[in-house]
Amino acid sequence: MWINLILKTIKIAIVGAGQFSQCFVPLFQAHPLVSEVSLCESVPERLANARVRLGVSRTFSAFEEVLNDPAIDAVANFTQRWTHAPMAIRALKAGKHVYSAVPAATTLEELQSLSDYSQTNWADLYARWDQPVL
Predict the structure, then answer these.
(1) What number of CA atoms fall less than 13 Å from residue 99's CA on the CB side?
(2) Is residue 122 domain-resident?
């Protein structure tokens, strides 16, 4: 595929296998620059069901496993909202790119930390903004 000669493909781990996150698996699987989509979920039954239903071959049962895997380039965080910033900071510290569901943070301090860590670790941070900020 000629596109791989221009841009590097990535391997992404989706963190959280709830109903909302499962909507994103097919989107990442269809993306031409994503070579592998894996799934991380701490609830074994939810992970097993999502793995079969979504056709994901690689899974993790703990976030630490994702962070410690050098093959994973990025994480997409779809966990509970109060965990978004702390988990994103951990991923950025591990050198992973991060896609976060909103809110990316719950305080201004967390937002500043996210910005700082993404700049000092040469990793990208993306937040999904689907509603206008009032």
Answers:
(1) 17
(2) yes
Looking only at the bridges linking them, the beta strands covering 74-77 and 58-60 are: unpaired
Domain membership flag for residue 134 = no
How confident is the model over 93-127, as pLDDT tens digits?
Answer: 999 999 988 888 888 898 888 888 777 766 676 76
Question: Within a domain: residue 4?
Answer: no
Residue type, 97: H
pLDDT number for residue 103: 81
Give dist(CA 36, CA 49) in Å, integer: 19
> 65 burial class (0-12, 13-18, 19+ CB within 10 angstroms)?
middle
Measured in degrees and rounded to the nearest 5, phi and psi for residue 36 equal -155, 135
The pair of structure tokens assigned to 26 is 């097919």
Q: What is the pTM of this model?
A: 0.84
Report if residue 60 sits inside a domain: yes
Answer for the pair 40, 13: CB distance below 8 angstroms, yes or no: yes
Q: What is the CATH number of the domain that holds 45?
A: 3.40.50.720
